[in-house]
Structures are given as C-alpha cells and as structure tokens.
Design brief:
By secondary structure, the chain is mostly helical. The protein has 12 helices and no strands. The chain has 2 domains: 79 residues, Endonuclease Iii, domain 2 (Orthogonal Bundle), CATH 1.10.1670; 106 residues, Endonuclease III, domain 1 (Orthogonal Bundle). It is globular and about 55 Å long.
Length: 218
C-alpha cells in the first residue's frame, strides 16, 4: 500500500474552492486516490462558465467517446462565431448534420436552445437548488437524461458529491483501478464510492483522468 502523502501540492487556481480539502480526505480514505491524486495534482475540474454550452456539449457527448465528442463539438461550434441559444436556432439542420450530429441530437440541441430563449428554466435559482431538484428540471428537456444532468452538476455548478453511475468511463475506471479489469456493476461502483463521500465528484474526476490523456470537460 502506498504511503499517505505528507502534503499534497496546492491545486491550480481554477480548481473549485473545496478541491484541496477533498483531495486530503480522499488520499486518507482510498488507496487508489492515494496513487492517482499526486499524479495529476497540477490539474483539477474546471468550469466553462456557460450553462447552455455545458449542456450542449453534454448532449453532443452522449454515447460516444471523449475523442469523438470533442471532434464533433469542434465542427459544430465552428458553425457560429457566438454560440448562444438564439444563434443555434438560426442554424440550418443540414449544416448541423454536416458537423456530424445525428438527427436526434439536432432535435435535442434545438429543444435545449428553446428552453433557454423562452425562459423555461430557473437559471437564477440553480445555485440555491439541491442536486435532485436541478436534475428533475433538466431531465424535462428532450434528450437530457440523468447522466447529462449530472455532467451539468459537475462541470457547470461544480457540485462536490455527484456520482454518475450511468457513466461508462467511471465504471471502466473503477473496473481497472479496483477490480483488476473485471466488469463492475452500479452496485459495485456505489460500494467503492462510499469511501469517497462527500467528495464523489472529485474522485470521479480523477478516475476519468486516469483513463484519458486530456482532462474530461463539458
């Protein structure tokens, strides 16, 4: 078992305010985190600061690899000089399909844009709402399931204790780091994550980071 580091380096300036405290907890409680966190101490979760873009990126990233999602997003975002909900509604469907989006994802992005332009969302209240209330509001939008809503909680609102059990990368990372590559169930993942609480977001980020050459971002 690797020794507990006496002192972890300070996290980068963009890290959420709770990051250092979370890392300190995780290296004490979890053997895998004890190994991973020092490897990536110069990096941390980072918000893009725009709720529409965060949700749109999550829709584009559904059911595809991080690499594929990044390439599609790059082509899609190049269609606009300013990626706002109103501008997305001005795009032609053929152009969006040409960027690599499926017909279904085009529909989802249009519905998302309409929710923003028609003020159907409580954007100003999100900071005060609890995680489950936000998930309930977001999953009322076409194409946004629990996974996408959880990505929003992590990457836009920076909520500290989100455990996205529907995320294939999280399950793969837990399989590789805790079960020698054997398949894991959601129940297995939940059991592993008991040691992560109340910082499941942070542990999830490090699991993702262990799998990809670049930090995951939405």
């Amino acid at each position: 078992m690797s020794p507990i580091p006496k002192e972890l380096p300070a996290p980068p300036a963009h890290a959420p305010a709770y990051w250092a405290e979370a890392c300190k907890h995780l290296v004490k409680k979890d053997r895998v985190m004890r190994r991973l966190i020092p490897q990536y101490s110069a990096e941390a979760l980072q918000t893009r600061g725009d709720p529409f873009i965060t949700l749109a990126r999550s829709i584009v990233g559904q059911q595809v690899s991080v690499k594929s999602a990044s390439a599609t997003w790059k082509r899609f975002s190049a269609l606009l000089t300013d990626l706002t909900p109103a501008n997305v509604l001005l795009l032609k469907v053929d152009d969006m399909r040409g960027a690599g989006l499926s017909a279904r994802k085009v529909d989802y992005l249009v519905d998302l844009a309409l929710h923003f332009t028609e003020d159907r969302l409580h954007v100003q209240d999100w900071e005060r709402m609890d995680d489950e209330a936000i998930i309930a509001e977001l999953t009322a939008i076409r194409g946004i399931g629990r996974w996408t809503a959880e990505m929003f909680l992590i990457f836009y609102l920076l909520r500290p204790n989100v455990l996205p059990l529907d995320d294939a990368g999280l399950l793969k990372g837990i399989s590789e780091s805790y079960f020698s590559g054997d398949p894991v169930s959601r129940s297995d993942a939940r059991e592993v994550a008991e040691a992560w609480k109340p910082w499941c977001t942070v542990a999830t980020w490090y699991i993702w980071r262990s799998l990809d050459p670049q930090p995951v971002a939405y």
